[in-house]
C-alpha cells in the first residue's frame, strides 16, 4: 500500500501531536494570591512577549561589545579592563534575573523543556559560581577569573600550559599532543 505526500504529511502531524507534551502546572500556582494577581499576570505576559526577547538580545549584543572591549584592554594589559570586568558581573546578574523571571513565568519543568533555556541555565550557573568564587577568593583561584582564557605572554608559561592542557584534555585530544594516541593514518579512521 502506498501513501501520497499529503497522507504522509498528515501522518507526521499525528505522530508529532502524540508526543507533544502539555505544559505542566507551575509550582508557583500553589500561591494563587500572588501568581494570579494582576501585577503577576502583567509580568508573565511581558516575559512571554517578543519585546522581552528583544531586550534580552539587546543586552546580549551590548555584552558582546563589552567582552570585546575588555579582552582588547586585557591583551594590552590596560588597567581600564577592571571597569569592563565589573560590567561583566552586572551582565551575569541580568542573566540570572532573566532566568528567574522565565522560571517564574513558565514553571521549572516547562522552562527546562526548551534546549535554549537549558544552555542559558548552565551558562548562568557557571557565571554565578565564577563570580562567587572570585568574590570569596579574589587571588586564590585566578584560573577562574572572568572565564577568560590565559593568554600566553612569554612570562606566564605555567598558567598558560595548565589551561591549555586542561582544554585539550577536555576535548579528549591530549594523546595527540603527548604522542600516546598517534593520529590515524587510514582515511576511514580520520572521521572517527
TrEMBL record:
Gene3D superfamilies: Voltage-gated potassium channels. Chain C. Keywords: Calcium, Calcium channel, Calcium transport, Ion channel, Ion transport, Membrane, Repeat, Transmembrane, Transmembrane helix, Transport. GO terms for molecular function: voltage-gated calcium channel activity. It is found in: Membrane. It is a multi-pass membrane protein. One of its GO terms (cellular component) is plant-type vacuole. The keyword Transmembrane applies. Residues 150-184 form the Retrotransposon Copia-like N-terminal domain. It comes from the Eukaryota. The chain crosses the membrane at residues 51-69. Residues 50-133 form the Ion transport domain. Pfam families: Ion_trans, Retrotran_gag_3. The keyword Calcium applies. This is Two pore calcium channel protein 1A-like isoform X3. It comes from Nicotiana sylvestris.
